[in-house]
Amino acid sequence: MADSRVRFVELSRSGALALQQCRWENDAIVLALLLEPCEDAPKENWAVRIEQPFEERLSGGWVEPFGFADEHPVLLPWKEDQCDIYFTDNALSAASLLGIVAMACSQIVGDWLPASRFLNNGLNLVAGERSPHGLLGRFPRSLASAILSQLPQDSIRAVLVNSRPPHYWDGIQFVAYPDDLQVLTFGSSFVVGAGFTFTGP
Fold it and tell me: Which of 62, 122, 139, 150 allows an S-S link to 144, with CB 3.0 to 4.6 Å?
């Protein structure tokens, strides 16, 4: 299994990938993938099983690059402390405040996760509603710090509050995410989870 994982990572440096099928087996996700190691090389059928998936965004078609990692921008909501940003004395328009958040989000997580994922929907910033004070949203610490550094201090006062490790509800209680959390990426698709198993030819 370890050798298959190593070879998959090696193929990701020069190959292309297409998602053929996705199916659920109890709580696990199994992906059927077609890999093209390099130009003119025979295509290979692979299966990737994720025992404990937490989030997925999947689409078909041939894509490159693809990869597998335990450090990636898309993992920030699951690996970094989560912080609330609370603001007061706001003189910024909704569009200006939203633009600052979107720019910081683009710098930290790229196109992997939208700014709307982290915003407090009750503020209705996207709808153009301006508020003098309120909870801006909940953000991974690095993203929260980037937002604070870009907010003009003469137009708004903002602070980080309620910093805490990320956790999820397991049906009984809130628990921390597994230490072996990783992400499989291909094109704009991704699967965040734990317990990845790679099976190749």
Answer: 139
pLDDT classification of 2: cutoffs 50, 70, 90: low
pLDDT for the residue numbered 174: 92
Q: Summarize the confidence of residues 140-162 as an average pLDDT.
A: 96
* 124 shares its domain with 68: no
Q: Which of 149, 122, 146 is nearest to 136 (CA)?
A: 122
State which amino acid sits at residue 100: I
Residues 59 and 96 in one domain: no
What is the DSSP track for 105-137?
HHHHHTTSS-GGGTB-GGG-TTTT---SSEEEE
- Residue 91 corresponds to which tokens in the numbers above? 């003189």
User: Which domain, by its residues, includes 66?
Assistant: 2-72+171-199
Counted domains in the chain: 2
